[in-house]
Design brief:
154 residues; Multidrug-efflux Transporter Regulator, Chain: A, Domain 2; mainly alpha
Length: 154
C-alpha cells in the first residue's frame, strides 16, 4: 500500500507555459490550444476555419494533433482580422484573399489600405478623381438636397 502525500492548499497548481511560441519569435510549432490563445479565438474556431480556407492546413503528428508554425499563425491572424475587425463574411474574406494574395496581406498593416488613397486626398492621381462634369453634377445634387432639407426642417 502506498501512501499519498496530502496536497497543500497554499501551493498553486503548476501551469505549463510554452516557452518558445511564435509570439516571441521562435519558429517552434504549437498545438491548437496555444495557437488559438495566440490568435485570440477558441480552438473550435480554428478547426472550422480549416474547413473554409484551403491554405489553413496545419501539420499533423502521428497521433493527429495539429501543430501550427509561425507562418500558419500569421495566416490565422489575417483571417481573424478580416472576419472580426474588417467585417468580411467568410465568402468575402475568401474572395479578398484570393484577389489580394496572402503574402500581400501579410505586409499590410491592420486597417490600412496601402494602395487606395483616401477620398479627400488631393494628391490622388487624376484618374482617381471624378471628372469635372461629374463634380458639377454632384454639387447640383448636394444643393438640391440642402434645399429639400431646409424645406423639411420648417
Amino acid at each position: 500500500m502506498t501512501r499519498q502525500r496530502p496536497k497543500s492548499a497554499s501551493t498553486p497548481p503548476v501551469r505549463r507555459v510554452a516557452a518558445n511560441t511564435p509570439a516571441n519569435g521562435a519558429d517552434v510549432p504549437v498545438k491548437i490550444g496555444e495557437a488559438a490563445r495566440i490568435v485570440g479565438v477558441e480552438p473550435y474556431v480554428l478547426r472550422f476555419w480549416e474547413t473554409q480556407f484551403p491554405f489553413l492546413r496545419p501539420r499533423h503528428t502521428r497521433s493527429r494533433h495539429r501543430h501550427y508554425d509561425a507562418e500558419a499563425i500569421a495566416a490565422l491572424k489575417i483571417v481573424k482580422r478580416l472576419l472580426h475587425s474588417e467585417g468580411f463574411t467568410i465568402a468575402g474574406a475568401k474572395k479578398h484573399i484570393r484577389e489580394t494574395g496572402l503574402d500581400r496581406l501579410r505586409g499590410e498593416a491592420p486597417g490600412s489600405d496601402a494602395t487606395a488613397p483616401s477620398p479627400r486626398d488631393e494628391s490622388a492621381p487624376a484618374e482617381r478623381q471624378p471628372p469635372a462634369a461629374m463634380r458639377r453634377e454632384l454639387a447640383a445634387i448636394r444643393d438640391d438636397l440642402r434645399s429639400l432639407h431646409a424645406i423639411l426642417a420648417r
